[in-house]
Amino acid sequence: MTSHPAAPSRRTLLRALAALPASALLLGEAPGLLGSALAAAPPNGSATRYTIVPFLNSNDGTVNVYQSDDATDFRLLRSSAYTPPAGRIRDASVIRHTDGYYYVTYTTRTWQDTSTTIGFARSSDRVNWTFLYNYTVPVANLSRAWAPEWFVDSDGSVNIIVSCSTTNDQWIFTPYLLRATNSALTAWSSPVALAGIGANHIDTFIVKIGSTYHAFPKNETTKYIEYATASNLAGPYTIRRTGDWAGWGSYREGPALVQLDNGGWRIFFDGYGDGNYYYSDSYDTFATWTAPAALPGISGTARHFTVIKETVAGGPSLARNTTRSFRSANYSTRYWQQQSSLLNLPVVSGSSTTAEKRAATFTVVAGLADASGYSFRDAAGNYLRHWDFRARFDPNDGTSTFAKDATFVLRTGTSSGSVRFESYNYPGYYLRHYAYQLRVERPNGTELFRQDSSFVPVAAWA
C-alpha cells in the first residue's frame, strides 16, 4: 500500500469555498466538491458496462479494449485487440448494432498521410474483431476523412459524422453526415455537410435529447471544444458556446459523451496538449460542467475514443436486512471492524473475543438516502458514514446530509464474490483500506486500489 496525500477535511473545503469566486461555484469548479451529483447503479444482479476502444499514444496501428462499471475506472479487457490488415487505426468509434455485433469505424491513415477511407470492423464479444472493409468517402477532391463518429438516431437510423478536408486546403475540415442505407452497414448515403457548424471544425460528436441535437465540435483555429444545437441532424446548427465556455481549456479534441446512471452527462476528451485524457460532468443539460479531471490509469496511454454504455446481467448482488461480515479481498484474515466509532480492518479469527466478533458484524439495510443503495448498521444501531473522507459510525441524526453520507452504491469487485462500495454523494469515490483504516477515495487506476476497495461479504462473525 503506497503512501498518498491526506484528503482535505470538510472544514478545509468550506474555507476554500469562501475564497472562490461565485463563477467557480456555478461551474462546479470548487476543488474536491461534487455539487448535487449522486451515484446510481442498476438493480441487484445487473451491472452497467462502459466500453472504449482507443488507439494508443505509442502505437496507432492497434487498439486496446477497456471496460468500466462507473465510467471512471477503466480496466484493460484486451491489449492489441484489433489490428487492421493494412493502414492504421485511429479515432475508433464503437456501437452495438441491432444484430448484436459491436462495430468500430475508424481513421485508416496517420495524420501526415492522405486518407480518403474510413475503416470498419466488428466483434461478437468486444475481444475478437474481424476486419470488414474500407469505405472511400465520396467527397469531391477529398484529401482526408478523419474521426468518423457513430450516431444512432431516435428513429433507429445509423449514421456517421466524419470530418473531411479537400485538396484545396488539406487542413480545413468540415463535418459530413453519412447514413446507412442497409442494416448490414455496408451501404451509405451521399455525404452531406452539417449546416451551421462550418469549416475548420473537426471531431464533431452529437447526442440527442428529446427533439434537440446537441453537437460538440472542436474548433481547429482556437483548439477549443464548442457547443451547437439543431432541430435536425443535418442542421442548420447554431453555435451556442465558444472559447473556454466550459472551463476545459484549449488544445482539447475527440469529445465523446455518455449518459451516466445518475442521469448526468459525462464528456471525455483528449488533452493532447498536455498528454492527459479528461472527463467532465454536466447535470443541467450542458449549461455548466464540473472541473475536468484526468482519467485514472489510461491517461497518457489511450487516445481519441467514444464510449458505449450497456446494462448487462451478472452484476453484484447483496441481500438486505441480513447480518454480514466483510473480509478484505486482498488481506484474507482482515475484516471490517468498528473501533472507537471508526471503521478499521484488523485481523479477526475464531479466537477473537466475543466483543471483537460483534464489532465485526453489521446489518445490511436499504440505503438511507436511496433504497436502491445500501447502508450498514453496527450492533449499537449506529450507521457507517464518511466524514472528512474517513469511514466511521455515528447515530442517524435524521438529516439529508447524514443519509447521503451513509449510503453506498454496489459495484463489482476485483475477485470472485467481492464487491465495491461507491459513495452515494461523492460519485467516483470508493470505500478502500489504507494502513488498515477505511476511507472513501477516488480510484487512481491501479490494480492495488481496486483490490484495496474490494470486500467479500461473508457469514457474520456474531
TrEMBL record:
GO MF, one example: alpha-L-arabinofuranosidase activity
Keyword Hydrolase carried by entry: yes
Domain (Alpha-L-arabinofuranosidase B arabinose-binding) ranges: 325-456
Key words, A-Z: Glycosidase, Hydrolase, Signal
PROSITE patterns: TAT
Pfam families xref list: AbfB, Glyco_hydro_43
Domain of life, per lineage: Bacteria
Family annotation (InterPro entries): AbfB_ABD, AbfB_ABD_sf, Glyco_hydro_43, Glyco_hydro_beta-prop_sf, TAT_signal
GO annotation terms (biological process): L-arabinose metabolic process
Signal peptide (from-to): 1-24
Similarity remark: Belongs to the glycosyl hydrolase 43 family.
UniProt-recorded name of the protein: Arabinofuranosidase
Native organism: Streptomyces azureus
